[in-house]
TrEMBL record:
It comes from the Bacteria. Residues 11-86 form the Insertion element IS402-like domain. InterPro entries: IS402-like_dom (IPR025161), Transposase_11 (IPR002559). Residues 106-245 form the Transposase IS4-like domain. Coiled coil: none annotated. This is Transposase. Pfam families: DDE_Tnp_1, DUF4096.
């Protein structure tokens, strides 16, 4: 960080102590032909990714005292493609569950989808229109545990049905959290998801909202995934679909979750405009 004034989105020393050791190991395994492992400050690269996630700024608008686009994008894309972002995310999730007195892997997940409008530059080939919500763009599917920690992410065109996304989420959950035996969904997920759940060893339970009570009524256990979507929207890069590739949108979601879990594990919070 040097002598620059910190941004609210910067990782603290305690948060970097959770992320830094893994990136040190990652860097040590990437030795060039000349025997070099790179000199870029990876903490500052992470700070730049989190800054852009939180503010939603364009690449060219990254502050001058943070690493600039060529460096930040290089590492963002590299960590996206080699799965480093997912590994960091899963390691923090296990620690967050342990801190809460839970086993490392969950036994229950909640599935839901969210349609997000796409910016003008996002390729039409990877976008569509949600027939139900009339939203043009992409659809983000999440599987979260009882603590609101993300287990799986899927990003598709908004025209893709919840059924298809639900099946993809179940496949990811079965691969990354084989201890899961129950998945709760809303009525938007049809019978195909339940059938696929039976194939993967996951019982799919439809939890419907109450039609007898007026206004918004949180649905037992299923409300947690709605809360997760709300916390993700605090990261303005996710409030609209800006990424050219759906894989980049998945990575953005993971980095937002990494920031949230790092704060949860260290007992800190990001200052808001309400804070003096």
């Amino acid at each position: 960080m040097g002598d620059r004034k910190p941004y609210p989105s910067d990782v603290s020393d305690a948060q970097w102590a959770l992320i830094g050791p893994f990136l040190d190991v990652w860097r040590a395994g990437r030795v060039s032909v000349a025997g070099r492992t790179g000199e870029q400050d990876l903490r500052e690269v992470v700070n730049a990714i989190l800054y852009q996630n939180r503010t939603g700024c364009q690449w060219a608008y990254l502050p001058h005292d943070l690493p600039q686009k060529p460096v930040v994008y290089y590492y963002f894309a590299l960590w996206r493609d080699d799965g480093t972002d997912a590994v960091i995310h899963d390691l923090l999730r296990c620690q967050a569950r342990q801190k809460a007195g839970r086993a490392e892997d969950p036994t229950m997940v909640v599935l839901d989808t969210q349609s997000v409008r796409a910016a003008n530059h996002v390729p039409a080939a990877t976008t569509g229109k949600d027939a139900g919500k009339k939203v043009p763009g992409r659809k983000r599917g999440l599987a979260v545990d009882a603590l609101g920690l993300i287990i799986a992410v899927v990003v598709t065109a908004a025209s893709v049905t919840d059924n298809v996304i639900g099946i993809r989420l179940l496949d990811k959950v079965a691969a990354h959290a084989p201890t899961v035996t129950l998945a709760m969904v809303d009525a938007g997920f049809k019978q195909d998801v339940a059938v696929h759940g039976a194939v993967t060893g996951i019982d799919v339970e439809v939890v419907k909202r109450s039609d007898t009570m007026p206004g918004f009524v949180p649905v037992k256990k299923r409300w947690i995934v709605e809360q997760v979507y709300g916390t993700l929207m605090l990261h303005r890069r996710l409030a609209r679909e800006y990424e050219s590739r759906p894989e980049s949108s998945v990575s953005r979601t993971l980095w937002a979750s990494i920031a949230n879990m790092a704060r949860r594990l260290t007992g800190t919070s990001t200052p808001t405009w309400r804070d003096r």
